[in-house]
Fold:
Amino acid sequence: MVVPLAPAGALVAAVPAPRPTARARAYRARRIGTTFGRIYLGLRARRFLARRVAPPDMPERWRRFHRQSAGLIYDAAIELQGLILKGCQLLGARADVLPREYVEVLSRLQDRVPPRPFAVVRECVERELGADLGQIFEAFEPEPIASASLAQVHAAHLHGGERVAVKVQYPEIERLVKSDLANLRTLFRAVGLLEGDFDLMPLVDELATQVPRELNFVQEAHNAEAIGRHFKDRDDVAVPRIHWEFTTRRVLVMEHVDGIKISDLAALRLAGLDPAHVSRLLVEAYCEQILRHGFFHADPHPGNLLVQRRESGEPRLVFVDFGLAKELPAKFRQGAVEFAAALLRGDAAAMAEALVALGFETRDGRPESLAAIAGFVLEAAQRFRHGVRLEEPAGRLFREIPDRIRENPIVRVPSHLVLVGRVLGLLSGVNRSLEARVDLARTIFPYVMGVAPRPGGSAGS
Structure:
């Protein structure tokens, strides 16, 4: 067995990561500025054309422009990586802010992150843990099993044989994040001065709050353990164990868990697992996190959700990657109950008031500003009452509600609801890949009313 290099927590104060050069920072600032400058000038030109000429094909021209602009942002994100890539991944879920052409293009960034060379990873791990790689690990696979905007994950074996997953933060990323945030603040502040109704500063504020949390792997480890405690009495949901003696702000070592990627329908069936059961389990797990505990894993894309077959032949859901987790306001569940009750009564005005309680914000402070959105949700709910595929109501809601919000600039959606909406959108996509039919009312309603099913049971069966 390897002797711990220091007591748990003592390794957090590590050698500073290398500082990006002034030339690199200047290039990133110029690349960001020129990309958004081209888009902004194109935006002004098309607005002028729409007002003065009003060509009949203007809607199609706008769609082409948005798609081309999204391509420019996509290319910049792939090149610059870091915060820019992370920010664009988040923008890919912000259909309430951006036209859907941007969302369609930027959402592809989730799977387009090139890994760093093994030499860079090795240097980072050794610097953080204060020892040669061979002193800590019996074996360390040089090819990553996953790579993301801020870090990548390698499989390894500790001395003694235990297989672990090692998440390694890119060495320069923390300093680049600070530099990129400053550049984006300057750029978006200028855009706000030129375009009074186009306020992007809340997006920068969201990044400034969220990304530093994701850069602290000690916090991520605490997130994992918190969610693990929420499911400690359930055998059908699992969270990997943290190895605290080898975890720092920039390196996270946890139990390596094998499983089937949740979207791999053929592999699930080959393992004898019922996709409908997996789908219900996934929805229930998120109902329990959001509506019972008020703290949830906020990044449920298929790469972060694994499925195992239990001895009983039933599925076990495994969560991985806890960098993005969210604690909901204390009154969130109360607002959800009030919204559900108003929805059942068909009371759009009360639904609008409940949206305010849930955290929707209006510039004029009046719930009436949310009446149109509440009315649309009510109409959609009345059409999708019984046993439909999850993506059918969710798909329409997530296409049309953002359009309504963008058309109404007095409505603002707070970050915690954006993340809840992003989770629902990702769950919709996962369930679509599972070809599962879920009775939404029967699955969600017990959690909304505070009567969660027994561990291992199924509210939607």
About this structure: Confidence is low (pLDDT under 50) at residues 1-16, 385-393, 457-461. Residues 1-257 form one domain.
